[in-house]
Amino acid sequence: MHQTGASSKVNTWKPDVVPWVERWLEYATSPTNSEPMAYFFWDDEGIAMLMDKYDKGFIEDFNAIFTPVERADIFRIVTCLYFGGIYADIDTEPLRHPADWVGPSDLARWVDDITGKSYGFKKLEEEAASPSANGKQPVNLIWGLEADTDPNTNTFWRMGYTYPIQLTQWALASAPGHPALKQFMDNLYAEVLFEKNATTIDPNRADPLTRTGPAAVTLATLLWLEHDNGFRWNALTGLKDGGKTKLVADALILPMTGFSPGRGSYGNMGSKPITDPDARLVHHALGSWRKFDLLVEYGKFCRTVFGLCKDWTKVPTPHRGL
Q: Which long-range contacts (CB under 8 A, 24 or more apart) does 230-236 make?
C-alpha cells in the first residue's frame, strides 16, 4: 500500500485526511479476512531516493522539468511499476477493503457490441478465486473511470476531459512490471525529449493532466490495449450496461462508481451513491494544485456554456513551459 505527501508529519496535513489515511493503514496492516500488506508513506525525500535508485537516467529531468504535482503523478506509476501494490491519494477514503475490490462478477465475460469481440475471464467458474493453470492471476492492473461520455458528442471536452472514456489516477493497483505502466514511462520519456528539442513552446503540452495525469495514464493504457489486444477503447463505457466492471486482458477497469461514486447530477456519467456495493473508495478532491487563473477559468466557462474554446489553455500561468 503506497501513499504520498510532501511530509510524513501528520501535523502538516489537512485535518480531514487523517482518518482516511488511518483507515488505509488499518486495512493494510490489520485486515480482518486477508493477509496484511506493507504500508509505505512516501514523502518528498523518499520519492527522490526512489527515483535516484530505480530511474537514475531520468532523475535530472524529473527534478528540473516537472512540478511537485507532476512528480507525485510520476511517482505513483514508478512505485507500482517496480514494487507493485495499491496506490491511493491521501484525500481518498476507502469504502471497501482492497482485498474485496475484485469479485467473481467483476471477471464475467462481456461482449463489445460494435466489434463482437468477447472479453473477461474464460474459466470464471473454475478459477475466479485462484491463479490460472499457468500461475498467472486474471487481474494484474486495476483502474477506475473518471469520465464516461458518449464519444459521438462533444460532452467530454466541454467538461474538460481529453478522452470520452478517461481513467482516473487518484487510485490504482498493479502487479510489478505491468506493460501499461511501462508504456506510461515510455510516453513520458518521449514527451520530455520532444519538449527539450522543440524550437517553440506549446503551453498546452505542459498541462499536468495530459503530461502526467489522468489523460496520460489513459493514453498509456489505451495504446497498450489497442496494440497488444486489438481492443476498442470506447467499449469500456458503462452508459449502456448500467456501469459494469470490465476485464480486458489482465486489466480490470472499474465503472464510474468504482473510484468516482457520489457525483452530483451535473457530470454524473453513471456515478452511483457512495453506499452502492460497486463503490471501492471516494475521492474528496482536497488537493489545491490548480490555482485560480482568470484565463483558464474563462476557457472553462466558454467550453461549458457555449461549447467553444476547445483548445483554450487549461494550464495556470506557473505551469506553462518547461
A: 230/117, 231/117, 231/119, 232/112, 232/114, 232/115, 232/117, 233/163, 233/165, 234/151, 234/164, 234/165, 235/112, 235/113, 235/114, 235/115, 236/145, 236/148, 236/165
